[in-house]
């Protein structure tokens, strides 16, 4: 096939990109479809806008991670896991809240976990060893917020806290392994 014929069709998305962005679009459509069959799902246009923004940010972050990773699969896996964990943390917190209901002020502290992760990533300049340290700190922050909420007399879901802290730690271990692998990553 000639180069002109390829350009006439537009740029071709690799399979993983098509799967990722198509999956995000499907996730965004699921509540709309569910609303046609049940009154239990009642999203407003604002709900769709927030969820769509979260999906776009997560998918965009994955695109950046692929570019940064320079083919290092461990780095990609670590980044994808960190992005997915952050996405789920925000989604769960907005939907039902980690501590009590979604309106409980303790839930705002979970934004600090994401701020810590993003700030640490920038300071580390996305290098694997710095990312490993950042995500270890993020896991620690997740557990500390749970302890603070518990000591404040709030009902707190420890299984969810341990799950999220564990996901942050697995991502940290993958970043650490990516740094030790010798495969090139961030220039």
Describe what you observe in this structure.
This protein has 187 residues and is mainly α. It is 74% helix and 0% strand. The longest helix is centred in the first third of the chain and has 25 residues, at 45-69.
Structure in a nutshell:
The protein is mostly helical and 187 residues long.
Keyphrases for this structure?
about 190 residues; mainly alpha; 7 helices; about 0% strand
Write the layout of secondary structure elements.
Layout: H1 3-8, H2 15-35, H3 45-69, H4 73-95, H5 109-123, H6 128-151, H7 158-181
Q: What percent strand?
A: under 5%
Residues in helix, %: over 70%
Mean pLDDT: 88
Number of strands: 0
Termini separation comes to 34 Å
Contiguous helical run count: 7
Form type:
flat
Order of helices and strands: HHHHHHH
Radius of gyration: 19 Å
- Main sheet, how many strands, which sense, barrel? none
């Amino acid at each position: 096939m000639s180069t002109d014929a390829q350009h006439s069709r537009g740029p071709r998305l690799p399979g993983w990109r098509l799967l990722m962005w198509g999956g995000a679009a499907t996730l965004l459509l699921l509540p709309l479809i569910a609303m046609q069959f049940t009154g239990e799902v009642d999203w407003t246009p604002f709900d769709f806008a927030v969820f769509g923004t979260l999906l776009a940010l997560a998918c965009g972050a994955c695109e950046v991670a692929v570019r940064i990773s320079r083919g290092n699969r461990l780095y990609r896996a670590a980044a994808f896991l960190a992005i997915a964990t952050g996405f789920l943390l925000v989604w769960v917190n907005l939907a039902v809240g980690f501590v009590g209901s979604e309106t409980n002020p303790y839930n705002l502290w979970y934004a600090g976990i994401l701020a810590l992760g993003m700030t640490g990533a920038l300071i580390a300049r996305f290098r694997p060893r710095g990312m490993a340290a950042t995500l270890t700190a993020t896991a620690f922050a997740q557990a500390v917020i749970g302890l603070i909420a518990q000591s404040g007399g709030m009902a707190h879901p420890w299984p969810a806290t341990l799950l999220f802290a564990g996901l942050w730690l697995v991502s940290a271990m993958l970043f650490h392994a990516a740094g030790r692998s010798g495969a090139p990553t961030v220039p």
